[in-house]
Fold these 3 entries.
Entry 1:
Amino acid sequence: MSKKSVVKFWRALSGGFSLVEMLVVISVIALLMGIILPALSRAKSAARQTICQSQLRQWGLAFEIYAGENDGFSPHIDGLDRQGDNKPVLPKDWADYFGWIDLLPPLMGEKRWRDHKPWGYPGERTIFQCPMARLGPGDDYTYRPRRNGFFSYAMNSCLELDENCWHHPQDTKWPMPSFLKTSLIKMPSRVILLFDQLLDPRFGYDGNKVYGDAGKHCGSYPKSFSSRHARPGGLLGGFILYCDYHIEWKASVWKPDWPDDLEVPPREDADWYPYP
């Protein structure tokens, strides 16, 4: 075989591309990546949303089991997270030993929150945290979330208003019981039990201002609701576990007439109070 024939044969085998052909191939690959990557991102987000809903269902089942075993009473809203490194010394704070984050996990084969140590509290990829939740910049917090623990789910603090909480002078039934009896809830399908809680301080008060206590406590109010789960079209919202143990997605829980710095909802609000 001549030298010229060998060169032709090698070129045929190597399948060389011209510059134009290379540019066409690169463009096609870029187009495919532009189509595939967003689809993968949406699939990943959908999977995380499914996990979040599944975890809330597990918490709902634990709430239901606990109430069934304890004469219809719910666990306490708050836990020892409000005490910091100090143990409660006042009788009014002893109820924090019976917070939902300590009483419910054993029903799911999990360790109680208070049995963990600083720097070792449940973080990402645990049933305590929404898989979509992410910590924000450290300087924006009023506490140390990695050391003291953080909560991307919160129980509705309006389910109990005792001497530890807010006193509504217009409420003739105050104080409400420290441990709520579920049979007292007038509209369980409407009353919020557990919800996606804000974890990134930059998006506090429905995205209106920085909220340094984001994720600090396991019981909170509407200001702590987080919109982090996207629906088709890009609208963000959060999941809510209601007192009848069903789950819904909502874009927001904030009412149009509420001020930006609202702490506690009006006493007549039927979404937050067991018997408004």
Entry 2:
Amino acid sequence: MQTKTNPSNGSRRTAILALAFGVLAACKSDPTTTTTTSGAQPAPSKPEPAAKVVKLAFLTNNASEFWKIAQAGVRKYELESKVQVDVILPDGTVADQNKKLEELASQNYDAVAVSVVAPSDQVNKLNEVAAKTKLITFDSDAPQSKRLLYIGTNNHEAGKALGGEINKLLPQGGKMAVFVGTLSADNAQQRLKGIEDAIAGHNITIVDKREDQTDRAKAQSNVEDIINAHSDLNLVAGLWSYNGPAIALAIDRLGKKGKIQAAAFDEEEETLRAIEGDTIAATVVQKPFMFGYLSSKWMHELATAPEATLAKLPKDGILDTGVDVINKANVAEFKAKLAEMKSVK
């Protein structure tokens, strides 16, 4: 018996075969389709490696209130760049700062910024660190070291600015004393030299210089001792941030307000209150907020784009952030600006 073929079934089979051949052809021509002899699925592609975490450190020279403003600058850059900068506050001694420098170098930090306690004594240690990471300085420089950049105040010019205020306070000349943590620090040496240059020819004599090694109690007792030892003393000046509050406390305790003039550096709250209360006449303020912000920025760039960043470093290796003189006339306005800077969270 002859079997009859249904034309519609034949057409359907033909269409199915055509579709199958079309799929096979597509698979052969699609470069994204892979086949294996075993029929197993292809291995998934490897994930991209995670981006390297940049390690940056901002190492101060002590733990004074002054550095809170610098930390606000660090924080602002962290928020802008989405990087972390570790802020480290040593106890103010060379030994402790050197120990922390060694730790940072051994922990593979990509860049380190440091305010050097005693530049002439720490050159070798700084050079050891500079051989392992990108090293910059701020606030207190070590120009003889292999640091790449100094960010901060031209301390000689800052000293001259304070010296100019001292000339105004002692128009007839007089005797003064100077107080600081350590005169071995580059910023202390330069500030003192600036004061000496400014008062030269104004009949003003520096009768004593006292160091306190960042001991706050000693900072105050030094001022009291000198005031008691020199009955004809006319003015006292502090070169580091906490010396202003120590001077104000000593003058108030001895009842010398209005009898002994005072001048200082930096913007600690007690110093500004002493200006408002007429115990201190003037203070020369730096830009610690910019120390923190710019140090973070340059460290980050040196760590992530070293060749391009090295090419744009200042030729003299110094980035001067400038100073302002604060006195009774502008202290309120300055405090308002300071509060705004500290408000960075």
Entry 3:
Amino acid sequence: MTDKTTANYVIHGAGGIGCVVAARLAQAGQRVSLIARGDHLLALQQKGLQVHGDTSGKWKLPAAAHANDLNIDEHTIILLTMKTDDTFKAVEQHQEIYRDLPIICFQNGVTNEAWLTKRNFLTYGCTVMVGAGITEPGVVRHSGGKMLEIGSWPSGVDNLCLRITKDLQLSGMEANVDENIENGKWGKLVRNLSNAYLALTDLSVQEASCLQEDRFFIADVNEEAANVTEAAGLFVRSIGKRNLREQIDHLRTGGVWPARPPVTETNRSYPSTWQDLKAKRGSVEVDHFNGAIVRLGEIHGVETPLNRVLRDLCRDAASRLLDPGTETCESLRNAAKNTDRGARGGT
């Protein structure tokens, strides 16, 4: 693909984040089509895509349940924007079409890239700092964030990375290439370890660090991750000026922190795990975040009771179709203590 060739972007898993990216690319004049399902797909086909918030407008884009019903050519680039657990079946259903096409993974965590690479797909990673969600079928709210970092998996940058980044920049996204995308995605994985906590305690992103007890809990969760990743010899590149250990120390600063910006009904946002519980979807991605830390801890002999409890209780809440807010900071700490004693053979 040359710079003079218009890319053909297929957004597979066109939920909140996928639709924001699709809208931006379409607004910039790129060819864009969507793969979605259920009532959301029906609304996209009948009424088009509507986005409000930090991205605003309406777009009528080709939308289908399968790529067979879209225009796929040699200039097609697949952006996988569904949840991690939905990736495997989706790719298997499309493997004949996607086998020789570049696939960019927009999911949090590192499971998708590892799975695709093992099966010899042309794999790229994308670290995503975008907040968005479906408010009703065909309608998406972009609550904040425009940052996307793209690189070849597990490291390196090629001409395709540069081309996609340029297209995203022209669409108004804050896009950059990343020479070591695996390190960046491990950093985002750690950042997402708090998603289960926010879902179980019913906290918005803006409220998560206001109270000391919440902030200290998140710091302790991140400390387990720091211990585990260091034991595994992994480099976790944090987003922002602080490294992971510095961020943990920062979160342990005492007192009440004001929400910045002040929380309003228009800017209040919730992580995707909270959204999954609220929508009663029956599953959450926490096994690819907190679960990844637990499994690494088991391999390297590092205890991870807080991440284990977050993983187990959040999966349980999802399977039982419970609303956000079933736990408190205190109840989670107590559960983690009981888990740790059980692992040690205590009573």
